[in-house]
Amino acid sequence: MATTFGKQNVSNFLQSVSLMSRKFASFCHKTQLNFDWTVSPEPEWFDHYCDQFYNFRLSQNPLWAERGIFGLLAIKPGATVLELCCGDGFNAFHFYSGRAKQLISVDFDKGAITHALKYNQAKNIEFKLADIRMEMPKGTFDNIVWDAAIEHFTEEEIAAIFKDIKQRLKPAGVLTGYTLVESPLGKGLSHHEREFKSKADLLSFFEPHFTHVKVFETIYPSRHNLYFYASDDVLPFDEKWENIVIR
């Protein structure tokens, strides 16, 4: 009984310390977030530790996590992965690197790559500074991830990037990614070149390049999200997908 009572006291103390540390981390990330996004110019990338330690509890919106999870569903253990427009490297470290054998993550923003190398590095991740319109890494990959970035390019640039992606995907390779539906009030960020009106609008960009495409949505009060899977082979949730049983 004494041991149990002693352990409970210690556990209660540790929980209190953990609570205080969470509150402090939340305050720091809230302050960072407000500064980064209210003082001009707006950054080209987002520090997702602000989601983890502040936004998630405040909003109860799992958008920041579902993006990594939906992308991970298409990645098999031991896969080679190319991540385009990786931003802060949060998803590369927390979602993809645990399953991928090799992961090359690129972004054109020097600040994003510097941040990724400092805070989200892993042995199987190679972060590179590259503009994918001109410097997309060579090689072939089981998966290519293009998350929260297709909207940063013009229609002509998107078509050209798709051609480069197809040259780098293995025959059974899968392209995954995320974007958002354009608000009736206009573009969500000044950096966005081409936001999408609907699932069908986004789907039309893939159809000339891939045999199989899935576009699906999640809807929150603050954002209407679109996710995509594209391949010339099996996609997640197809009848032949190895991770599913359909009656």
Structural class: alpha/beta
Distance between the termini: 52 Å
The level of helicity is: 25-40%
Strand fraction equals 15-25%
| Major beta sheet, strand line-up | 3-2-1-4-5-7-6
Shape: globular
- Tally the helices: what do you get? 7
Describe the protein's architecture and organization:
The termini are far apart. Helix 1 crosses helix 2. The relative contact order is 0.11. The chain has a 7-stranded mixed sheet with strand order 3-2-1-4-5-7-6, with helices on both faces. The chain has 7 helices and 7 strands, in the order H-H-H-E-H-E-H-E-E-H-E-H-E-E. The chain is α/β, with parallel strands linked by helices and 247 residues long. Strand 2, helix 5 and strand 3 form a beta-alpha-beta unit. The longest helix is centred in the N-terminal third of the chain and has 37 residues.
How is the topology of this model organized?
Layout lengths: L1 H37 L10 H11 L3 H10 L6 E6 L5 H7 L3 E8 L2 H10 L5 E5 L11 E7 L7 H14 E12 L18 H8 L5 E8 L4 E8 L16
Parallel strand pairs: 1-2, 1-4, 2-3, 4-5
Antiparallel strand pairs: 5-7, 6-7
Helix pairs in contact: 1-2, 3-4
